[in-house]
Specification:
The structure is a homodimer.
Chain A (H helix, E strand, L loop, with lengths): L10 H18 L6 E4 L3 H12 L5 E6 L2 H12 L3 E6 L8 H10 L5 E5 L1 E2 L4 E2 L3 H9 L3 E5 L11 H4 L3 E3 L13 E5 L1 H8 L12 H8 L12 H17 L1 H21 L3 E2 L10 E5 L6 H12 L4 E2 L8 E5 L7 H17 L8 H12 L3
Parallel strand pairs in A: 2-3, 2-4, 4-7, 7-8
Antiparallel strand pairs in A: 1-9, 5-6, 8-9, 10-11, 11-13, 12-13
Chain lengths: ~375, ~375
């Protein structure tokens, strides 16, 4: 990011843009031409997906099993879609039976929104069955992979995801501010056949894609040059490590973290069969002031743990171990800090037990 | 930008946010509480202004005297407003008589869009009379100060601008990717009394402002932390130099540049009474391949000059001398490079004359 800022129409920058797009295609596992970063955070990509696909009066179904499903439904509604909610409990994956009922009850549904990795609850929703089901009903799938891309398998082509997006600052390991997105042919057909103008200029895919397309390069808005430099570098680092290796590292670190937290007597908020690796959501124990614990972690130990969002506000801790931060040492530092803080709060702590459990887990990983 | 990326809800970051807002208020010359950077480029701020103020069926008037006026009208239309165009020739300021006619012909107009500094033509439109006129008709003024903020006077409170926005990468001297915006009380009243939901989530002012407001800090979207660091530093550098001094530097550099270009026999595309300082728009002389000149400037001299947009495409060079780039040495480098390139192209050049004219202008500045 300290490289000189060149112009957004400088041929030198075009090469950087092409590098970014090519690496994003490898990470999304797609041949989709329309694959690039949106000049906004993940929420901007969520809006880009909805505002281009949906027209006023369309029907959309959104599976809500956490805060970002709620947000996706909100955005679909702002786009003027009749939005049908398929709710399932926070901490669990989306409910496919309820999705099937909703698709049956709403023939002509244009889009189904699914959150692959629900950052608010730590739950992953396996996508393949939901995608097949949605396609049998003739609808498009929009999949939110903000927290899964780079830590879990995301197969845009094999799974046949129509629109998939992520964000720079999670498992891709760049600073926040960019949001990669990929549109498949089925989605592009729908967008090209729109009757109404896309209601956003900034997120209008046609304009954005004409700038990113290597044969067009038409000015749409000034690209955030420095952020694109950062993303190229973070993607190169991913390529250097290898995608499989990066996924395995996230799994190893998360498994050790969960072992340590459990050894400390803490409960995880996420259905055991559906736990994300980059983020672990822990129920704050009764009688402990969860915000005070987070404040002490930050102030005394330089460790940031997030609080709960929405329904989980004030009830959980969300521990991110993602991108370059997903390291064994981060786990050990957190566990030992938590032991100290919880011990001070009269929570019964067997000092050292959590760190030992994590270490055993790391050592046994892959056996 | 090389500082560690902290969390968007870290108290350390809140202080940085407050610093940014406070300096932005000083630069906008406003006491407006709702003053902060949007997590997008200038076009995103343009959309933020329109999508929050306008509801479907409202009437908007947009003065179009260049490419960004055209864009502002496009965005107002995407917001569902009946959009009345007040056109005036490119290179000239907005036409206030025509604006008055349009206001008279469209009672109940909600918003008038004005581009203070038209980056595509190099023309500045003095705002005070247009604002007074608009307010007499009960409408709000949205003013685009993307290229003027930091190089020309922009007085949000004294002039009574209702919504004013800019961009990080022009005269504020930060990398592209953020767009400062300020909303006055009259605009906030209109927004608070909306009947319909704002159609964008990402640009929804209520959500953005709740995060930036120092007493709320509610998560809306992940802030582009590193970009905010960059903007704080660029604003500090502006404070160090002084706003008056920075304006004067832009004027001194632009005056010298214009003197040099004129001495080279080139014509400026902008009405002489309304020339912006940060950007100088030059008519490419007949018989000269303008794109080739720009390519040689970039490849042989590392100097980027922009081509024309819209009506001006293929006809003009746009020379930006803005932010930290607005320096006498930049002017001399460009003029001497242009002499070499144009001389090679059988354009008659009196070598050295343009540089001498610029030097005389610099020396006489302020007399």
């Amino acid at each position: 990011m300290t490289q000189p800022v060149v112009g957004h129409l400088d041929p030198v920058f075009f090469q950087i843009m092409d590098d970014v797009c090519e690496m994003l295609r490898r990470i999304f596992h797609t041949g989709n031409t329309v694959t690039m970063p949106i000049s906004a955070t993940g929420t901007g990509a969520m809006e880009t997906a909805c505002v281009n696909v949906l027209e006023r009066g369309d029907t959309a179904i959104v599976c809500r099993n956490g805060y970002f499903g709620v947000r996706l439904a909100d955005i679909a509604q702002r786009c003027g879609a009749n939005t049908v909610m398929v709710d399932s409990p926070w901490g669990k994956p989306a409910d496919l039976n309820a999705l099937e009922d909703a698709l049956n009850a709403n023939p002509g549904t244009k889009m189904v929104g699914l959150v692959h990795a629900e950052t608010s609850t730590g739950a992953i929703t396996p996508l393949q069955d939901a995608i097949d089901l949605t396609h049998r009903h003739g609808a498009l799938v929009i999949a939110d992979a903000v927290t899964s891309l780079g830590s879990h398998d995301v197969q845009v082509d094999d799974w046949d995801i129509d629109v998939c997006y992520s964000a720079s600052q999670k498992c891709l390991g760049a600073p926040p501010g960019l949001a990669p997105i990929s549109f498949g042919e089925r989605a592009m057909d729908v967008i090209n056949k729109r009757e109404s103008t896309v209601e956003s200029f900034y997120f209008n895919l046609q304009g954005v894609a004409e700038y990113w397309n290597e044969t067009q390069r038409v000015y749409h808005h000034t690209s955030p040059i420095t952020m694109i430099y950062a993303m190229r570098e973070s993607l190169r680092m991913m390529m250097e490590e290898g995608l499989e290796e990066q996924h395995d590292r996230h799994a190893r670190v998360a498994t050790g973290l969960r072992a340590g937290l459990t050894a400390m007597g803490l409960d995880l908020a996420t259905d055991p069969g559906y736990q994300l690796n980059p983020i672990t959501v822990v129920n704050a124990p009764e009688g402990v002031n969860e915000a005070e614990v987070r404040a002490r972690l930050l102030n005394d130990f330089d460790i940031e743990v997030s609080g709960g969002l929405g329904e989980f506000r004030g009830r959980v801790w969300r521990v991110g171990m993602m991108g370059n931060g997903a390291r064994e040492t981060s786990v050990l530092a957190l566990l030992s800090a938590l032991e100290v803080i919880l011990g001070d709060m009269d929570y019964e702590v067997a000092y050292g037990a959590s760190v030992a459990a994590a270490q055993r887990s790391f050592a046994n990983h892959g056996d």
